[in-house]
Amino acid sequence: MRPASARPRTPGLSRAQWSTLSTRWALMALVVVGAAVYANALHGPHLLDDRRAIVENASIRQLSPLSAVLHPPRQMPVTGRPLVNLSFAVNYASGELAVQGYHAWNIGVHVLAALALFGWLRLTFARMATSDALGLTPESAVWMALVCALVWVVHPLNSESVNYLTQRTESMMGLFYLTSLYAAARAAGAPQATERGANGRRGRAPAVRAGRWEVAAVASACASVACKETALTLPVMVVLWDRSFVFSSMGEAWAARRRLYLAIAASWLLFAWFARELPFFVPGGFEEPVARWTYFLNQGPMILHYLGLVVWPAGLIFDYGVPNPVTLSDVWLAILVVAALGLVTMGALWRRPMLGFWGAWFFVTLAPASSVIPIPTEVGAERRMYLPLIAVVVLAALAARFGLRRSVAPSWQRRVAWVLSAAVVLALGVRTLARNRDYADGLRIWQTVLDRRPHARAHEHLAMFLRDAGRIDESMAHLGMAAPQSPNALHALASARLERGDRSGALADYREFVTRHPRNRNIIEARETFGGVLLEEGDTAGAIEQFKAIVAQNPTYARGRVRLAGALARAGDAAGARAEYVEALRIQPQNLLALVNLGLLEAAAGQTDQAVATLQRALQVQPAELTARRRLASILLDRREFAALEAQARALIQYAPSDSDAHNLLGIALASQQQHGPAKDAFAEAVQLDPSNIQARQNLERLK
User: Fold this and answer.
1) Helix or strand or coil: residue 404?
2) Which candidate, 193, 256, 257, 182, places its Cα nearest to that of 216?
3) Residue 194 dihedral angles phi and psi, to the nearest 5°
4) pLDDT per position as a tens digit, 663-687
5) What are phi and psi of 355, to 5 degrees?
6) CB 226 within 8 A of CB 83
7) What's the maximum distance between 2 C-alpha atoms anywhere in the chain?
8) Are 234 and 184 in contact (CB under 8 A)?
9) Contact (CB, 8 A) for 144 and 397
10) pLDDT per residue over 362-417, tens digit each?
């Protein structure tokens, strides 16, 4: 006789009808609960990588050409992740930088991922129902899948992937990852086709509509890889799922589904194309690299910390900072515990694959960011648990079900199970709502980091929000605390000192920055500002040194060459300045400052023909450039080309009607062409505009 928990509660419905109805209700519940728990997560500010991935990302400013959107610049959080960059472009097209649209997208992706998870778990639990030892039934598979998906969608550990806009890389990858698994499971056929036969072995699933589902699985796998490199583990998990729930051996699985395995594994080729620009695989990808061994040692305590947060998600941390310089003696116990869990997983895969699969899921999906690839910028991140969390939730649900069957009467099992499930979902949902409030305020989220795990980057980013709030002194204090460890904080502190008028302090900070951090991504900006201040302070040689360093690092940076040329000209090196202006114009022919200054240099050197040609080019770029017009008018006056002088004087008056000298020049040009009446009016206007213009007054008296 079936236990009470397995009986449909609606009389008159067949098993198939009950399954369909319950599935629909489950999907609706996931959508409603998922949306409700993140209803207060629509207004959080841009955080950390959001500035580079969204605010400063020029590739998302338009949707065409599509190739530019799918190929974001290097050294960005979306580099090598084209689908995520495309999603940002869609958000920008609909609302530019307004955060609500970006947050709504993240919430929608998370809810869709929960739906995909539910579908895959429903199929998985249905296959687990073929094993009497686990105590599952086909009817209970739907409810087990719903409970696990609900716990996962509301768990606070996932709040970072939803609230931190850039980390849709994680959630979008997870959505397509789970969709691929669901499609692969559907392609395997119904679980009834794989129940143990008389010989105790499970047979091959029928290929009913398998082709379509296999295509969907492969397409989703490729989409997952186009969101984040963690998706490289997907082929492994598809094979392990087949071995654990469908086939009796790896050989049998390979014989039946090798076409699918190879097609999904082909997504690795797609990743190889994207990986050309990922910072993990290019020379100098990270400014401050970390030793692989040091990073690995840090991961033991981090993994145990993640597991603790699954059970008790209190004290969540948005940014864990960089890896600590630890040794094996510092973390041996954590490493030993994690290794023991790994050995238990391997044993379970061998003896009880339906349970061992979940341990394998945890370690395999966590491995890319928590062991295999050293990430010097962050020792840990709660978003890394986006997929691994599923395994812990499923194992906890199975353990709870086993405990209920052993300790509660069958007639009460359903009631107790639903009360416990509802209590867990409610408690986790309340904590997630509270965590969303932290993310809604930049000051608040960074203060929680400083309260729970203080480090330089937290001081640096809290300082940014304090600055935006007008609390400048507090901002500079936090920058000062961060500067010894954070290059960006040192650069920001130098800029802040300069804005406050502390030029000596700014010069000291800039000098330290360019000396200690020559590979920082802000180095050119820092050298340019530093050189400009040195030039203003009279240290021309120091300014030239900084500008030469800019040109050496980026020879095609036209503005750097213009700044160098200006410093050389001030130092009296006219030939060197001219050479730099000419090179800047070769790089950027329309560079207005280079054209004007080169024209002035040529005029000062007596090369009037070249000066006239250069200044005229400058005026073609910007007709309202008054310095170029005045110098050109002066040359024309010296050369007694009065008709051309008249044209330049009239153009000057057009762009600067109150310029007394321009009216005086017009009067000279007109008088020299025997147009005495209009010349008299021009001189009179010049005197009226500026009574102290002695030359105009004398010209007027002379004409009278």
Assistant:
1) helix
2) 182
3) -120, 10
4) 989 889 898 999 988 989 888 998 9
5) -95, -40
6) yes
7) 125
8) no
9) yes
10) 999 999 877 767 788 889 999 999 999 999 999 999 998 888 877 767 777 788 88
